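dumping the sequnces here before i forget
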Amino acid sequence: MSVAVKHLSALQIDRLLGRAASGDEPHLAHCPDCSRMVDERRAVAAAFRANVLPRTLPVIRARIERRRRTGILGFGAGTLAVAAAAVLLVPAVLHHGPTEDGALVAAKGGPTLRVVARRGESIFPVVPGAALQQGDRIRFVVEPAGYRYLLIASIDGAGKATVFHPWDGSRSAPLPQVARFEIPDSIELDSARGPERLFAIFSRTPVAAPGLKSQLRDIGTRGHAAIRAGIDLADPDQVQLSLLIEKVSP
Amino acid sequence: MLYAEFGPVIHARCRRMLADAAQAEDAMQETFIRVLGHLDTAPERRDEALRWIYRIATNLCLNHLRDHKGRERPAAELPEAWSASDEARIADRDLLANLVTRIPPRFSGPGWLYHVDGLELDEIAEVLGVSRRTVASRLAGFTARARKLAGRSAS
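..and the predicted 3d for all of it:
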């Protein structure tokens, strides 16, 4: 007697995207149809991140801004202000210039990130493209500008994604609502050579770290050029500040 | 992060439902605009967030199919008489797109999720935020209306 094969549903397959393990792997091991479909969806997802996401993110931000101006329904007052502020503050810019004192900023009045390094007795600001070494210790100083949560992570030349703040955390840490805040504890850099890109995500609600780390590892798999080029991972209601450093031999 | 994480899934879903690339991308963008407009109600767990966004995208695409029912597009004809094999044909996207324009949303939504997406009743209940019993009832309502439409087209 033959038994009809029960395949994974569309939702189960979509759940598998971006996940290391989901419990459906035993089925995939024995079902070439579902396995093929998962592979196809993963390829489509990769194409989305490479092509569709960069093109459509500014469009979504612009549409949010238009709705705010015309008062179209669908936005609560608080979220509307957040979305609009994000559109005004982050016009799909991947590269931000430093302020006069070296802080990274996406737009005037928005949150800022300053990275300071210590090498022995020497203390110096870390500018984009700065050459740092194993053993250098870096600290972060931020101006929250009203954003309530912060997640800082990096992807290095070895493809390793690390959450710096909160250290090895699973989600964004609350930010004190002060003008300027120095994040406690410094980070000692490891021996991985090549480019390393830091991502600081300022948000109104906590951001889950596993999702960000997965996206960073995707960048890492595309090589050093992709790490150096950077990418905007922030939702329209968030602000991303990103800094590239180059890890070199002492 | 929501857009980067779930954008690929929702984009692919809209493509499967709407077939037209431009319409699917528009629906996908509209989905995330609505998501961002209701962040205060967004679930925190990934699985729950995915189901929530799935629901928004599904409803948007179904509304789009109904809004465009007067326009020319490839669509399978309704069967003249309903048979067991037609149940299988429902899984055909074009046939279901035809039915969606003629059946109220509270029945066509579960119908699509079940017959095209292959979701189980429990999964449909999770996506729509209703009870399993409600899903079963609405699926029965969908089938009854589809049979009636088939009978009407034959006469």
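The longest helix of chain B spans residues 132-154.
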